[in-house]
# Entry
Amino acid sequence: MPKFFEKEIGILVDDDPIFSEFQLCESGFEECKPTKPYEFIMIDYWVVHYCIDGEGYFGVRDKQNHIHPGDIFMIPPNTKNKYFPDVANPWSYLWIGVKGTLAERVLESCGLTQENYILHHKIDSRLQNLFEATYDEMQRSHNLKALGRAFQLLDYIQHNVHNDSSDQITSGELYFNKALHFIHKNYFNNITISDIAAAANIDRTYMFKLFQKFLKQSPSQYLQQYRLDKASVLLRKSALSITDVSYAVGFQHPPYFTKLFTQYKNITPSEYRKGFLQ
# Structure
């Protein structure tokens, strides 16, 4: 599996279809910068995006929609569209592009049509893994395997997003999303678990249960992991010292940050940075 987002963008294109009925013609991922300009591209195939972090805006035929983590949005072919990241919390997403005589029918079975091009979902590691696996097989030039992964991905959307009546946004999910939003906006501050719970208007015990339900980890584990992921970006892309990086992502004690980062990445922060200076 590729290490996604150790670079900002990856795009794979296949112009030699195996089947005319349904072709996986593109796969990719991108971690957008706040300054990324509007995308405004007319394409002749269907592109299905999955937002895994941050926020952005997506418009089709001049109708703008606010996209959050977990949301799926599709660009129909030959359709005026525009999309761009939220400046304060820029998004990251993965995508596949498909075409063929049966593509529209397959996507309709997943609830994605010319009129209904957004599915509001939730953070879903299984769905993310399927997008990543599709990219991985395409990168290895295993075109049949990549196509098979794409079908698995769409089948998952059909049965676990579109047709799952339990997938309506519950009050628990709303509280959970509020907690995530607070973390994403304030991770660099000296926030506590009590601060996060207060921002979501729930108590600590209920918040712990929500994180266990949706992420299989505690709020403190998620906050720590999120900070370490942001530290990884700064180590790759900035000239800040290790100490300044630790403070920039919310760690108050640089030696503790170094210890946690080494446990998380199996490599020290300085060694990690050297790998991107070659």
